[in-house]
Amino acid sequence: MYRYDTLDREILADRSAEFREQVGRRLAGDLTEDQFKPLRLMNGLYLQLHAYMLRVAIPYGSLNSTQLRKLAWLSKTYDKGYGHFTTRQNLQLHWIKLADTPDILDHLASVDMHAIQTSGNCIRNVTADPYAGATAEEIDDPRIWAEAMRQWSTLHPEFSFLPRKFKIAITAAPKDRTAAKVHDIGLAVKRARDGAMGFEVMVGGGMGRTPYVGSTIREFLPANRLFSYLEAILRVYNRHGRRDNIYKARIKILVAALGAEEFARQVEAEWDKVGTDADLPDLEIARIRGAFAGGAFETLPPRSEAFEAAKASQLAFARFVRNNVKPHKKPGYAIVEISLKGIGETPGDATAEQMDVVADLAERFGQDDIRVTHEQNLVLPHIRLDDLPAVHAALAAVGLGTPNIGLVSDIIACPGLDYCALANARAISVAQHIAERFADADRAENVGELKVKISGCINACGHHHVGHIGILGVDKKGEEYYQLTLGGSGAEDAAVGQALGPALPYERVAEAVDTLVEVYLRERKDGERFLDTFRRTGVAPFKEAVYADVH
Amino acid sequence: MPTYIKRADGKLAVAEDAFTAVADDQDIAPGDVIVSLTRFEAEGDRLLAEGRQVGVRVESSEDVEALAYDLPRIAVVALAFPKFRDGRAYTSAALLRERYGYKGEVRAVGDVLREQAGFMVRTGFDAFEPADGATVEDLERAIHRYRHVYQRSADRRAPAFAEREV
Amino acid sequence: MKALTANRLVDGEVVFWDGGRWVERFADAKLYDDAAEAEAAEAHGKNQPKAVVDAYLIDLVESEGLWAPLSYRERIRALGPTNLNHGKQTEGGAAIAALKHAHGAARSTGRVDLIRRK
């Protein structure tokens, strides 16, 4: 993975020193809260319900074991011994003291980590495929481009005070694991007929109050023109995005108001003027590419006897393999997804002990490489088939062996009203109740792929709009109610979900999901996922079943 | 009167402001003046013909392109930050310097805070009217906070990737 | 009935005003049944920017003979998160039990536009 050099490290050190000074001025009363808030947010520090929350950036969801161990240590030392992995591939620590944050940032910097631009109206952490460098599907390693974008966007002098936050995703595989079409910019690596590499550029996707699937504004952008084109998009947005209404300030609203064609025309006009000066030299891309090269893969036979034997003799291991283990580009290797969705646990949470175990496994068996998925799970991208039984056993021993990736209990949930100052309703406990209903692993596997996504408010951190089943918490006269949507998808077949009907009270949500699943099992035809069945039948049979007993 | 801090030859200093900012509903003051874009469009030629120096205040919602043909005659472009969170003036400054090669003064006015001084210098501002009481020393520290920068901007400072090539 | 709450600046801890200082337990909060007195306390709270962030009044409701915050949001602030038992609720005791059992009559705090508070 990318190794920081002296320059990268000095930038982090300078940032940390700056924040230490700002915290000092705030505690001394030289800065008011109104003045300080945007400064702390630029360092990912929120004030939530119970304490400060620090959102640590995990650029493109990529970590090494030293970094994960440091996160574990920070969570033990400065928090309550756990952290929360988010849908933006970041880590949130929920019980942080303001006075500790300068030290925490120093500790993060000591392992080449930071919290820069994890909040604020700037370019946020770039989302990338968690299988990057491991999947055979990809055209190029998207981390190269994501790292280049990380550097370009860090403390960008022109684009740090945009109308609203700005999120970029990049994928290089046909199967989209980044939700690229619901990002402000989604980049899909493509090859032209002549073999040249480039990007399909999608703009204006997003969730929140007004969800949109992004529009393609350029089918093929030559790879070496990426940064001038990004500059053109950001410049058009910075100048013309709305600033009078926080709910209409995202680029999706500008793109929708102008129409994708007119927006594209303005971007192209600006791009012509920007010229190639703004592009990154090929040499720098080559340097970054070099940093990601490596991956000392052994030449292995495609079949591992140890692996086959364990699969045949251990039901639990076989189930884990069916659901959590994915094909690797190299024979004899596999990608292992670690579910942070243990039944009854908090989606996305990992204890310090669990983080340490994952770090140890990555170091011992996994080329020191760990990924975070936007679905709030972890990935060990390079595990030898021979080692899989040992990895599984070690994971299972600390409660990380749940074999439910992509299944109904692999639920995305934001922290919701249990932690978040913005939330209207709880999300975690709703996820727990649903997961408990599908605790029977056979039943969950029979249901198959089903993405349930829960947000505690309309900001949609839990991606409910693109859940096969989406659940949105609302405040109805102080009571927690939940609106259900069906048929959303954040993948390559992106779609915004359709409302099921009137909001349901807290107690009825898990039962309603159960009913929806029963309707699907009744209606499904061969090989159909929940999403496919819904797309064929429409909302009617689902609606009828859920509201049947409502008079 | 706000403090006026000017950056010349890479150094900041408190300076005497030769210009009077004239609001649209005020009479034109004697001497050098800064007027709104609207007023400049109506009265600019006359003001310049009087032999004085003229500056133009551009609001964040206004396009600097409107000044393109007049820039050689304009001594100061004052770019307004109605709130520090309004980042449009950074683009305006960058366009003035990079696209139009403007050599006159680009002044930050309005909600100008020391925390943003580094971004301002990078996008081409060279004069400041701080709203937070920041001193020359405060601004100098903010401007020199980072030993390296990652991207090109109007200040032509060598970005990290260029430093790496050396 | 109302109480005054805030988050402590230095560590973000949920605190309540006891009439003379900020305290961590809701059970120790001063309860105001006089609106003018409550507003005066709030004004005083807002005037302590070096001690707390964002002081505001919350509405209370009677529950099992004790007072509890009216809204779920404020109950969660007074108790800790419901998914893990590691907030203020770990202390236990009658006051915590009353908060946990408080039900019905939950209403919004009247604080609209929460998104702006970020």
Sketch the topology of chain C as an H/E string, one letter per element: EEEHEEHH
Strand order of the largest sheet of chain C: 3-2-1-4-5
Q: Please give the most extensive interface between any two protein chains, plus how many residues each contributes.
A: A-C, 41 and 32 residues
Question: DSSP helix count of chain C?
Answer: 3
Radius of gyration of chain C: 14 Å
Biggest sheet overview of chain A: 6 strands, mixed
CATH superfamily of the largest domain in chain A: Sulfite Reductase Hemoprotein, domain 1
Oligomer: heterotrimer
- Measured by DSSP, the beta-strand proportion of chain C falls in 15-25%
Number of individual domains of chain C: 1
Number of domains of chain A: 4
Task: Determine the mean pLDDT of chain A.
Answer: 96
Overall residue-averaged pLDDT value of chain C:
86
CATH A-level architecture of the largest domain in chain A? 2-Layer Sandwich
Global outline of chain A: globular
Helix content of chain A: 25-40%
Number of strands of chain A: 21
What does it look like?
- The complex is a heterotrimer of chains A (551), B (166) and C (118).
- Chain A is of the alpha+beta class.
- Chain A folds into four domains: 6-110, Sulfite Reductase Hemoprotein, domain 2, CATH 3.90.480; 127-292, Sulfite Reductase Hemoprotein, domain 1 (2-Layer Sandwich), CATH 3.30.413; 307-397, Sulfite Reductase Hemoprotein, domain 2 (Alpha-Beta Complex), CATH 3.90.480.20; 412-546, Sulfite Reductase Hemoprotein, domain 1 (2-Layer Sandwich), CATH 3.30.413.
- Chain A has helices at 6-27, 33-41, 65-78, 101-110, 142-153, 226-240, 251-258, 260-274, 282-292, 305-313, 315-324, 352-365, 388-397, 428-437, 441-447, 509-523, 530-537, 540-546, and strands at 45-47, 52-56, 62-63, 82-85, 91-96, 127-128, 168-171, 185-191, 197-203, 215-222, 325-327, 333-338, 349-351, 370-372, 378-384, 412-413, 452-455, 469-476, 479-486, 498-499, 504-505.
- In chain A, the strands form four sheets. In chain A, strands 16, 17, 18, 19, 20 and 21 form a six-stranded mixed beta sheet that branches. A five-stranded antiparallel beta sheet of chain A has the order 1-2-5-4-13. In chain A, strands 3-14-15-12-11 form a five-stranded antiparallel beta sheet.
- In chain A, helix 5 packs across helix 9, helix 10 (305-313) packs across helix 11 (315-324) and helix 16 crosses helix 17 (530-537).
- Chain A is globular.
- The mean pLDDT of chain A is 96.
- Chain B has a single domain (5-165), classed as Alpha-Beta Barrel (TIM Barrel), CATH 3.20.20.
- Chain B has five helices and eight strands.
- Chain C has 118 residues and is an alpha+beta fold.
- Chain C has one domain (2-113).
- In chain C, 24% of the residues lie in helices and 25% in strands.
- Chain C has helices at residues 35-46, 72-79, 94-101; strands spanning 2-8, 14-17, 22-23, 52-63, 66-69.
- Chain C has a five-stranded antiparallel beta sheet, sandwiched between helices.
- The longest helix of chain C has 12 residues, at 35-46.
- Residues 107-118 of chain C have low confidence and may be disordered.
- Chains in contact: A-B, A-C.
- Chains A and C meet through helix 2 and helix 14 of A and helix 2 of C.
